[in-house]
Design goal:
4 strands; Alpha-Beta Plaits; 65 residues; alpha+beta
Length: 65
């Protein structure tokens, strides 16, 4: 199951890299980060959506509900 998470505050490649870095800390593997959007397969990664959102916010961005 792929989840799409909308992210506010991203404007450049540095923003993408910052979120990728936080997701890599969770050992996430099957994800794609674009400006304003994170797509991640929760089943492949065996991660809870809340943990993904926390990682995005640790990177300094706001998850849009």
């Amino acid at each position: 199951m792929t989840s799409q998470i909308k992210v506010e505050g991203m404007s450049c490649h540095h923003c993408v890299m910052a979120i990728q870095k936080e997701l890599n800390k969770l050992n996430a593997k099957d994800f794609k980060v674009e400006i304003g959007l994170v797509e991640i397969n929760l089943e492949t990664n065996n991660l809870q959506l809340e943990k993904i959102k926390e990682a995005i916010e640790r990177a300094g961005y706001k998850v849009i509900e």
